Amino acid sequence: MEEDLLGKSAHKVFKIKYHFVFCIKYRKDLFLEEKYVEFLKEICKGIEERYSIRFETMGFDEDHVHFMIQTYPRFSPSEVFRVVKSITARKLFEKYPDIKKELWGGEFWSDGGFVGTVGEGINAEIIRKYIKNQGRKPEQLKLVDFV
Question: Which of 10, 25, 65, 109 is the most exposed place for a label (fewest CB within 10 A)?
């Protein structure tokens, strides 16, 4: 079982989790390349250090990624969405400028995405299993538990 952390600040204790899904623009299958998956994991570790965002679980399919994220109540889901999408895209383009050619000089992520709240107990475990079972081809399935 994943370790659950209680967030604490001032006179509050909290546990807020979200399930995010981001799709690569034009549904390009870039996550079939391990270098992009590994670098995205590094970027997320950097985001954890800089922001009050904890990446609990990540699951990669060839053209999209699922995150279970824990954060403080001072961040709205849309703020977390914006921070993660913008930083990951910028850093991926900096390290791998050739990606822009594959995406016709555009953005890394498709507009929009999915965000849902995750309650603890059975709900969180169902989402964890769903994320871990992503991938159409078992040989390309990439999983990351940050705990």
Answer: 10
CB count within 10 Å of CB 84 equals 23
For residues 9 and 16, the answer to whether their CB atoms sit within 8 Å is: no
Q: What ranges make up the beta strands (E) of 11-141?
A: 12-14, 16-23, 53-60, 64-71, 114-118
Give per-residue burial for 12-40: e unless 16+ CB within 10 Å, then b: eeeeebbbbbbbbbeebebbbeeebbebb
Structure tokens given for 27: 């549904």
- β-partners of residue 17 are 70, 118
| 63 neighbors 108 (Cβ within 8 angstroms) | no
The whole model's pTM is what? 0.79
Q: Positive or negative CA dihedral for 55, 59, 65, 67?
A: negative
Distance in angstroms (rounded) separating the CA atoms of residues 40 and 123: 26
CATH of domain 13-145: 3.30.70.1290
